[in-house]
Amino acid sequence: MRELIWLIPLIPLLSSVSLMLAGSRLPRLLIGVAGVGSVGLAALLTLATGLDFIANPEPFQLTLWTWMQVGSFAPGVAFYFDGLTLVMMSVITGVGFLIHLFSTEFMERDESYARYFAYLNMFVAAMLVLVMADNLLLLYLGWEGVGVCSYLLVGFWYQNSANGQAARKAFIVTRIGDTAMALGLFLLFTELGTLDIQAMVGTANETWQVGDNVALIACLLLLAGAVGKSAQLPLHTWLPDAMAGPTPVSALIHAATMVTAGVYLIARTHGLFLLAPDAMMAVAVIGIATTLMAAFTALMQSDIKRILAYSTISQIGYMFLALGVGAWTAGIFHLMTHAFFKALLFLGSGAIIHCLHHEHNIFKMGGLRTRMPVTFWSFMIGSAALAALPMTSGFFSKDQILLQAYQMPGMGPWLWLAGLLGALLTAIYSFRLVFVVFFGAAKTEPDKDTGWRMALPLTVLCGLSLIGGYFIIPVQDVFPVGSGDHPAHWVEYVSISVPLFGVLLAYLIFHTGQLKVDSLVNSRIGQTLRQFWLSGWGIDWLYDRLFVRPYYALSGMLKSEPVDAIYGLIVAINQTFNHWLSAAQTGRMRWYIVSMVFGLVVLLTLALQISPEVL
Amino acid sequence: MLEITLFYVAATVALVATVLAMTRTNAIHALIYLIVSLLAVAVIFFLIGAPFAAALEIVIYAGAIMVLFVFVIMMLNLGEKGDQQERQWLLPKIWAGPALLAAVLFAELLYVISTVEGPVSTTAVSAKEVGLALFGPYVLAVEIASMLLLAGLVGSFHLGRRYLERDGFDDGSEK
Amino acid sequence: MDGLNIPLNHILLVSSLLFAIGMMGLMIRRNIIFILMSLEVMLNSAALAFVAAGAHWGQPDGQIVFMLILTVAAAEVAVGLGLVLQVQKRFKTLDMDHANRMRG
User: Fold this and answer.
1) CA A298 – CA A536 distance, rounded (Å)
2) What is the pLDDT of residue C104?
3) Which positions in chain B have a beta carbon within 8 angstroms of at least one beta carbon in chain A?
4) Whole-model pTM above 0.90?
5) Which of B22, B38, B174 to mutate to probe the C interface, most C CBs <10 Å?
6) Confidence at residue B173, expressed as pLDDT on a 0 to 100 scale
């Protein structure tokens, strides 16, 4: 099986290319079969490889060919396969397959059916290349590939210019991080002489002491790339806008896979980050700050997809926190469970949006519990997992993160407290969503319930969200083993009870209405805070003032071409002389004759002055 | 001495005739004075031992070229109106500046030729010598001159034909 | 023909005067016919200088250049008078100040 893993990204890629070339002429059924089938095939191959790997857990490397050779720089098109790769591939192909299946119903009325699946398949292929790459350059290829697909899919409904705007924003903001990451790759190559990840980490351990400055800079540059891709502070602003794309795209790219690429990158290069404790601290701080910021913002949103988008940012913040405190396994575990329950939530919201004629505002929904039972239970289970209620998958992963954060020496307890606050907010906003949308009075009438192609993925993901916590991910050989101590029991009890308290609060406020918060919200401070959080802490506004407007001002200034003014001056001088000289062109023959005679006289005088002896 | 006297007389006639030619308002009058001037120059040619040049001056310059002028002036039929116009144009404020320039140039030429000394040759250069030189070392110049005349022929034919073909003869006067 | 004692510089003086007068006419006249006449005078004065110089050395070259000048004058007058006809036709006047379309 192991020699065939190159087929896994190739199959979706081939499907994508053929759909691009011939898609518009194919019948819809065939497009769907190709789109879903290719990813399904990849998932089956992944499953087979995974079983093989679990039976014989030996990482292996597969070099297909040398990509390019420039001096000592010879990155290959080579794949590396270990437990981490397996986890990522399973998530990508497994969740990807379910989302593809869901898409066949969600997009069934769309004109650009083939284009949609072409992009989505290409995304899967690029994402697989990203996680399977043996060297950072190939990883970067996949990294940019998913960026392009994200751009194409966010702007999928390009007829609406706002979608194009959102796509450009997503592309440009992530490009900032990508540029930093490219610089990091350059630095790593100059310092270590290779980009093969395993060899590189080995060389780094020989070259650098713990706390080396170059290692710190390299790690911070990689972190910048991860921050851009994973929508963390301060480069998170693109993700809420990226919800302009079709909802299954949001589920696949902007919740389950691509946005976690940053987490994967840091986990993959954890050998470097261990050499730079300050960089790890930066990861943890960015993670927790993002978690809180996004959670507060999610609490105020009324667009169902934006709530989920901020929730995703917040949950990836948890993953960063985990990476930052060295809880690598917990971080990847949360990545996986999050892929399950967030895909579930997004697909559920997709089902709602699909059945409610593209209604996004949760306050215009309500009472959907009885009308859309499958979706209701999906949301219940997804929200429970998101809020980390006991026995759901999210509980296991988030609990591990919080406990390991608590154990971190130094500021551990503070990170834990902040994480708890985040967990409380998560519980409140996720169940606010559930209570507002599914309980209460019905405000709209869905014209149908979900079909089987929507219900099946939802059901499977429900199961995964519930039992995902019992999976044991085979990464014990990839990451260094933690201390294994357990903190005091009260820490664990608090961690468990806080989300429950959050659900209770949401129940009291949004369902029974027993807890009146209107006066608090309507107070002046409440209103100000509400506006502040609703706008995502004003960060978009800040960036607008800080970067966009100065850039526009600068372009406006440069539009008049101040540098060209120098050349313009030369032109102006010439034109002035031209005016003077052309004034001499009177068009009168006598004037010309007199001028010529005058010139003759002057020349003759000069000649006589200079050399009278020639005469 | 007779020849020297003749030379000064001829020179005076040439200069006076030219000045008159340049200041006439009637084109035909000016042309007649010009012909007189050319004839006077032909006399000078004859006196300085260039009889062939003198003959050419009379035959071609004063004859052919000036007749060409006469024909054209006749075709244009300028009349009395043209005379008045010319008179208005010949005001002192118009010719003062050019006169100054011409005087300066003349002074400079004078200064230049003041260094020249000696009389002209005592022996005349006959037509035979001229012919030998012309078809000896200067044969190429003859060819070039013939080309020039051909070009002049073609050019004037072209200009004149268009003039006659377009809308026939037009003297510019109201009809 | 006996040797004569006409001083060369007197002939050249006459030639210069003719040239200056011709140029004067060229500058002050607006009628194209007179302009052409002035040109003839100037050419003629140059020819006179050449012939005089040739006579000074007793060589035929001066007369040959005179003949070349004669050709130039003939060709120039032929084309020039053709132009006069065109000017008259287009501008309905011979005043060259009206033919000022080349004004810059």
Assistant:
1) 8
2) 61
3) 97-98, 101-102, 104-105, 108, 111-112, 115
4) no
5) B22
6) 44
Domains and CATH numbers, chain C: 8-101 (1.10.287.3510)
DSSP A563: T
| Alpha carbons A331 and A95: distance in angstroms, whole number | 18
Within 10 angstroms of residue A388's Cβ, the number of other Cβ atoms is 32
Subunits close to B (at least 3 CB pairs below 8 A): A, C
Alpha carbon of C60: minimum distance to chain A alpha carbons (Å): 23
Q: Which two tokens stand for residue A308?
A: 């989920």
- Residue C16 phi, psi dihedral angles, 5° rounding: -65, -40
- Would you mind telling me the total number of residues written for chain B in this entry? 175
Within its chain, how far is the Cα of A545 from the centroid? 23
Q: How many CB pairs under 8 A join B and C?
A: 262
Distance from CA of C49 to the nearest CA of B (A): 10
Q: What is the pLDDT along chain B (175 residues), one digit of tens a residue?
A: 788 888 999 999 999 999 999 888 888 889 999 999 999 999 999 888 888 999 999 999 888 888 988 888 888 877 677 677 777 777 777 778 888 888 998 888 888 888 777 777 667 788 888 889 889 889 999 999 999 999 999 998 888 776 555 555 544 444 3
Report which of A120, A596, B83, B68 is spatially closest to residue C31, judged by C-alpha positions: B83
Per CB-CB distance under 8 Å, the chain C contacts of B74 are none
CB contact (8 A) between residue A597 and residue B102 = yes
Alpha-carbon gap: C23 to the closest alpha carbon of chain A (Å):
8
CA distances B130 to A231, B45, B120, Å, are: 104, 14, 17
Q: How far is residue A84 from each of residues A43, A56, A583, B56, measured CA to CA in Å? A: 16, 15, 82, 113
Q: Which residue has the tokens 């002055």?
A: A609
The count of other CB atoms within 10 Å of the CB of residue C38 is 25
CB contact under 8 A, B111 and A601: no
d(CA C20, CA B172): 33
Look at residue A73 and give its three-state secondary structure: strand
3-class secondary-structure state, position C93? coil
Distance between CA C86 and CA C94 in Å, rounded?
10
B149–C71 CB contact, under 8 Å: yes
Test the C interface: residue of A593, A596, A598, A600 with most C CBs within 10 Å? A593
d(CA A159, CA B169): 72
pLDDT reading at A483 higher than 70 = no
Alpha carbon distance A5, C83 (integer Å) = 91
Write the ipTM.
0.88
Which of A92, A98, A123, A129 is closest to A7 using CA atoms? A129
Q: Do B112 and A608 touch (CB under 8 A)?
A: yes
pLDDT tens readout for residues A517-573: 777 777 777 788 778 777 777 888 888 888 889 988 988 888 877 788 888 899 999
**What percent of chain A has pLDDT above 90?**
14
**Percentage of chain A lying above the pLDDT 70 cut:** 98
Nearest chain A Cα distance for residue C37, angstroms:
14
Residue from the list B101, B108, B111 with its beta carbon closest to the beta carbon of A598:
B101
Report the residue of chain C nearest A590, measured CA to CA: C27
Please tell me the distance from the alpha carbon of residue A180 to that of residue A193, in angstroms, as a whole number.
19
Chain C residues touching B88 at Cβ < 8 A: none
| Residues on chain B touching C88 (C-beta within 8 angstroms) | 76, 170-172
Closest chain B residue to A611 measured between Cα atoms? B112
Instruction: Please name the member of C14, C59, C63 whose beta carbon is closest to the beta carbon of B53.
Output: C63
Q: Which chains touch C (3 or more CB pairs under 8 A)?
A: A, B
pLDDT of residue A11: 92
